Amino acid sequence: MLKILIPTVMLVVTTWNVRAKWLWPATLTHSLLISMLSLTWFAHTSETGWKSLNSYMATDLISTPLLVLSCWLLPIMILASQNHLSQEPANRQRTYISLLISLQIFLILAFSSTEIVLFFLMFEATLIPTLMIITRWGSQAERLNAGTYFLFYTLAGSLPLLVSILYIQTCAGTTSLLILHYAPALPMTSFADKLLWAGCLLAFLVKMPLYGIHLWLPKAHVEAPIAGSMVLAAVLLKLGGYGMMRIMVILEPLTKELCYPFIILALWGVIMTGSICLRQTDLKSLIAYSSVGHMGLVAAAILIQTPWSFTGALILMIAHGLTSSALFCLANTNYERTHSRTMLLARGLQAIFPLMASWWFLASLANLALPPLPNLMGELMIVTSLFNWSWFTLLLTGAGTLITAGYSLYMFLMTQRGPLPVHILGLEPSHSREHLLLTLHLLPLLLLIMKPELIWGWAI
Amino acid sequence: IIFIQLHLVLCNHLISSNFTQDQKSMKKKAVDALPGSSWSPVLINPNLPPERADIVIVGGGVIGWSIAYWLKQKERVRGGLRVIVVERDPTYSRASTVLSAGGIRQQFSLLENIHLSLASADFMRNINDHLFVLKEDPVDLQFNHSGYMFLANEQVAHIMEENYRTQRSAGAEVSLLSPTQVKEKFPWINTDGVALASYGLENEGWFDPWSLLNAFRRKAVSMGVVQCCGEVTGFKYKTNVVNSVDGEQMFIRRIQSVKVQMPNSLEYQPVECAIVVNAAGAFSGKLAEMLGIGSSPEDSIAGIPLPVEPRKRYIYVVHCPDGPGLDTPFLIDYSGVYFRREGLGGNYITGTSPEEDEEPDTSNLDVDHEFFVDKVWPSLAHRVPAFEKLKVTSAWAGFYDYNTFDQNGIIGVHPLINNMYFATGFSGHGLQQSPAVGRGVAELILDGNFRTLDLSGLSFRRILTQEPMLERNIV
Questions:
Q1: Is the pLDDT of residue A337 over 70?
Q2: Is the domain of B233 the same as that of B333?
């Protein structure tokens, strides 16, 4: 564990000490080495229990995929930010990279923490670098509004969480995840315990986001620069899912009754956000709303707490992280050339960027959960387990899947097919850096078709 | 005790007077700082344009606002496009639109011009179907449908006949009149020297340009177009070097942001944008120079400047109590002198185009009254004898956005600047074609090519190939 964390901390030192000419190659190589090292976490010999154990950090089967994803994301974020930061002075570039690295450190600590308190601290700590990235390097005046929404939605949700964690500490005597599984169940009989249940879960539901408290997400995603969007979509949303998975253990047996409104909100959110996507003109906004929809499925799956649903949720989290991040990178390639996120002004791009069109195609297909990609595996397991829980959900999830396919194809056809407007003709050609970026997103996704055992948590 | 009481009263008085004042100001500050008020600790100039827009239209005349309206009309989802219109003079003191005589005619020789005017006339007749804003007054253009009448002498009568055929085939309602018919219809005309007259029966006349501009602006603003008062002083662009087929090196530019400077200030805001529309009218040439159009050696494409420059034209308001009646058309003589009725009190507007070599100075909008006495009045009085007794009550001057190449509009993209669209150079008939031009440019931007009217003949290509599309019989 420390063999990943210490190099990541030292990456900050690297950032500030290399010469400006070598800044991007050096940080890229260093972070790629770290992510290669992180792949060793996949070597789990036991199917339950914790690996890489030390007093405060450990990995187990649901945190390992998320940890590897966040380690994988750092080199990709550095690759993606290289172009738009190239005009800034060197020290500001170093600051930006340091913010990304600090985000990485907090995420590693969060996903590998064995104490709920440490997880909560890191959960909150990730807000700070993200807020800095959005409000300082975003491109529009609305980014201040976006930062405010982002910060206060999460903070408002996590204050009850803090109180709940402290209560758990006094009640159960410990907040260590290693022990809480074996602790006697908390007496959950009074109305206050229902508030405890809500308090524990609200922060994570806001972070997921649950439809209804999702308003911060489109704003934050649209206004953030590319690295901000990528890390938000790929990993920060999964913090919510992971937190929910961890804390549901101690919240039995209340979940059976109390989860109803949230499952309904989540599934209704899938349909509503899908419909909103069909009407969007802003490309990044479309991808942001599609994130809300996918994570709604994940939220519903985690709330019903069956083995298949947990597996499906985990697979979908990883697959969605890679896909959403890839889509944001593609949208950014558009934005860097035309300086506009409006889909109406950048159409018919297949004619001038054919290879980029194939990446668009793959990413759109992944978004609409085409077999045999892991997106489908996750969605199918979630839909099946939800159907088992209640047959009625099939109407919602089925309609949701249909609308998801609709807007994914709409996004692809609007940007790639159609007449090429005259003012698009002089765009600069694709950089190989951009192709590398998308390969690094889509290759793991394709490889995971072959070995989904890596990401399906506790065995089915 | 009295001393203590006095002391207390005094202290109270002092404390309360300061205290209530402080309290008031603190309250005011708190009310200001509550959410929903516009106070902020960081003072940002509220007049600055937004940092990003999709389309920046440079020039807030009737063409600019028409394009803004049509862009918003054609976006398929509300709020789908961010459009801003940048105008440096909100009083429009030197803008060609409001200083125009306001006439509209279909009597051109080029098919594109005829179609543009026809479509615009149709738009203006049904203007409240297009530009009506809820809870505001309906638009009244004061469109006088009195028609235009061109008079031709022996030498140019055949051109007039050919134009007549073109106009009829395009759908314009024009009629040819012989001199006797003209005399019958309008007894106040002296038909001496007139061989043929062409009289527009429908969709021709004049209207109030200010009303049209305001109608477009009001509607566009209600649909979400941002209006910015500022001057475009520069562009930030990216240059690509391209080797053409004949080995010539071309610099293709792509605008990344527009630098908008606030009036009377050094403060500026770079507006990042995807597309820039040059609708700056008489000053479009200067705008194009900022991008390096025309600053390269003569024999390359980059050396061809945008051939639009301001040309000053005078309009004189005359009062003649026994002048032509209410049905008088917009009369244009073959000598170039024109006049039309203005209002109902016996006032008329008149003027003429000066000779090529006698173009007035364009650094100001001062009126040369000698010009009226020397050039306008003689021909005017010859054509309409009643005008021998008239009094000039007022006069003004306005700029034509004169296309020195062929005096017709330029609509389309520049070959060397990827994302700048031009809609300029209309040389005196921009106002009457503005609704259709706006629609054409919006189709070009959003649909990729023209849909309703094919205006590809007015593109930049004719300037590159040096093939002018000249009107025969121009005013």
A1: yes
A2: no
Q: How many residues does chain A have?
A: 460
Cα–Cα distance measured from residue A383 to residue A293, given in angstroms and rounded to the nearest whole number: 14
Radius of gyration for chain B, computed over Cα atoms and rounded to the nearest angstrom: 28
Q: In this predicted structure, what is the pLDDT of residue B383? A: 92
CB-CB under 8 Å, B418 with A342: no
Does A120 have pLDDT greater than 60?
A: yes
In a domain, B339, yes or no: yes
Test B50 with A140 for CB contact under 8 angstroms: yes
Please list, residue by residue across B4-35, b when 16 or more beta carbons sit within 10 angstroms of its beta carbon and e when fewer do.
Answer: eeeeeeeeeeeeeeeeeeeeeeeeeeeeeeee
What radius of gyration, in Å, describes the C-alpha atoms of chain A? 21
Q: Which of A154-163, A252-261, B136-145, B375-384 is predicted with the least confidence, judged by mean pLDDT?
A: A252-261
Q: Residues B292, B217: one domain? A: yes
* A178 in reach of chain B (CB within 8 A): no
- Judge whether B48 is closer than 8 Å to chain A, CB to CB: no
Is residue A226 exposed (0-12), middle (13-18) or buried (19+ Cβ within 10 Å)? buried
CA distance B413 to chain A (A): 7
Cβ pair A342:B445 closer than 8 A: no
Q: What is the pLDDT of residue B449?
A: 86
B250 touches chain A (CB under 8 A): no
Hey, of A285, A422, A425, which one would you mutate to test binding to chain B, going by the most B CBs within 10 A of its CB? Answer: A422
Q: Is residue B178 located within the same domain as residue B219? A: no
Whether residue A410 is predicted with pLDDT greater than 80 in this model: the reply is yes
pLDDT, one tens digit per residue, over A139-148 is: 777 888 889 9
- This complex has an ipTM of 0.81
- Is B421 in the A-facing interface, judged by CB distances under 8 Å? yes
The domain in which residue B339 lies consists of 313-393
Q: State how many domains chain B has.
A: 3
| pTM for the structure as a whole | 0.86
Residue B33 within a domain: no
Residue B37 located in a structural domain: no
* Residue A324 CB-half CA count within 13 A: 32
* CA pair distance A155, A136, nearest whole angstrom: 20
The answer to whether residues B213 and B98 belong to one domain is: yes
Give the closest of B257, B274, B448 to A422, CB-based. B448
- Examine the pLDDT at B333 and tell me if it is beyond 50: yes
